[in-house]
Design brief:
- By secondary structure, the chain is of the alpha/beta class.
- It is built from 14 helices and 17 strands.
- The structure holds pyridoxal-5'-phosphate.
- Pyridoxal-5'-phosphate binds next to helix 5.
């Protein structure tokens, strides 16, 4: 029995069966490559689902963890430590918001944002404003798997087994301004958006839709809350994806790449929204601890020092351009979209999408498929053009082989029928 087989067998006995893992055992990584137990290197275009922004084994991250872990790993939120205020300043400056709350994961940050919206509406009501408690979320949205987040996540499969979910959430058709207008009222305390939907298939919101959401929310005192957990922290070439639209939300959430692989989330909001939280209303044991703060500060510093926002834009544009070239040669690619290093190629078949992920894996390139037919690329920000070329060549080969096999099958089918 190989080591992988032993681990698989043990996990299948001991862990709750929540994951359908690929049969790979990773033990290390370097730059854009992750390394398995046999020493084979894989080009990682998924970076731990958009987490490892600086790739693997980055000296700046390794150094920050080493330094901070020798000094102080955890204090609880009963005391001050170095790092919290420094990171909050970096994040408020980069998001255009005023105050920050630190959490540990994406879904926990999102729960905090939802609580802020309810508490803020309560404050407004106490001041005589006519505003309700309802949330408007979007179709195909993904905001996490805890109860509040799950209630605002669109797909039935995430919610139905756990019903009844948190009430008061209505879904609006994505980019449908008329539907948004029809469903918005004084009952709504917040409109919840991802300006580029991640799990929903890397779908950018239209300028018109996001502008309308902003205008409607402002008209009643409701909040516009932007989930930047996947598209934020520089992946799209700007710190926040909403900055491509020139539209400021009242609240935003960050997580995945925030601390370069150390779990961390954050909620940021305006001063107006912040006044609805008082000591005791919200909290966490681990959130914003010294280790995560030190690493997040190091990650932001490195992104800026090495110009990775501009790099993500440049390499991301090249990636999309190359995918568009590929789409000209292969009808199976029906759309190419994204921003910076959040890129997708939508295919005309779920079967082909699944096959492409598996075939890429055989060629030691990690990608994934979301929304059945969408090949999603969330590489580390340090990706280079040469890695894009390798990826395009592999995809070209896979689509060519698939088309040939389909053609052969059709011909064979034709003969048998004839
Ligand atoms: C991943 C994700 C979440 C949930 O984050 P977790 O850390 O897995 O809880 C929420 N929103 C978006 C947009 C995400 O991509």
């Amino acid at each position: 029995m190989t080591k992988l087989d032993q681990i698989r067998a043990a996990e299948s006995r001991l862990l709750l069966s929540t994951y359908d893992r690929n049969p790979l055992l990773f033990v290390g990584g370097e730059g854009v490559h992750i390394i398995d137990e046999q020493g084979d290197r894989y080009l990682d275009l998924l970076s731990g689902i958009g987490v490892n922004a600086l790739g693997y084994n980055h000296p700046v991250i390794v150094e920050a963890i080493a330094r901070q872990s020798k000094a102080l790993i955890h204090t609880s939120n009963l005391y001050f430590h170095e790092g919290g205020a420094e990171l909050a300043l970096l994040l408020t400056e980069r998001t255009g918001l005023d105050r920050c709350f630190f959490a540990n994961t994406g879904t926990e940050a999102w729960e905090g944002a939802m609580k802020l919206a309810r508490a803020h509406a309560g404050v407004l009501r106490s001041e005589g404003v006519n505003i309700g408690t309802k949330f408007l979320a979007l179709e195909q949205s993904f905001h996490g798997r805890t109860f509040g987040s799950m209630a605002t996540t669109y797909k039935d499969k995430y919610r139905e087994p756990f019903a009844p979910v948190v009430p008061g959430v209505e879904f609006v058709r994505f980019n449908d301004v008329a539907d948004l207008r029809a469903k918005f009222s004084n009952e709504v305390c917040a409109i919840l958006v991802e300006s580029i939907q991640g799990e929903g298939g890397v779908r950018p919101m239209t300028q018109e839709f996001l502008a309308e959401a902003r205008a409607l929310a402002s008209s009643t005192g409701a909040l516009l809350i932007a989930d930047e957990i996947q598209c934020g922290m520089g992946r799209t070439g700007k710190w926040c994806a909403y900055q491509h639209y020139g539209i400021q939300p009242d609240v935003t959430t960050l997580a995945k790449p925030l601390a370069g692989g150390i779990p961390m989330g954050a909620v940021l909001c305006t001063e107006e929204v912040a006044r609805s939280f008082h000591p005791g209303m919200h909290g966490t044991t681990f959130g914003g601890g010294p280790l995560a703060c030190a690493v997040a500060i190091a990650v932001i510093g490195e992104i800026e020092k090495t110009g990775l926002l501009a790099h993500a834009t440049e390499v991301g544009d090249y990636f999309q351009e190359q995918l568009r070239g590929l789409a000209k040669r292969h009808e199976a690619i029906v759309d190419v979209r994204g921003k910076g290093l959040m890129v997708a190629a939508e295919l005309d078949s779920a079967e082909l999408a699944k096959l492409a992920v598996a075939e890429m894996l055989k060629r030691r390139i990690l990608i994934n498929c979301t929304s059945e037919t969408v090949l999603r690329f969330l590489p580390p920000y340090i990706l280079e053009r040469s890695h894009v070329d390798t990826t395009i060549a592999a995809l070209d080969e896979i689509f060519t082989e698939y088309a040939a096999a389909q053609g052969a099958a059709a011909t064979a089918g034709g003969h048998t029928r004839g």
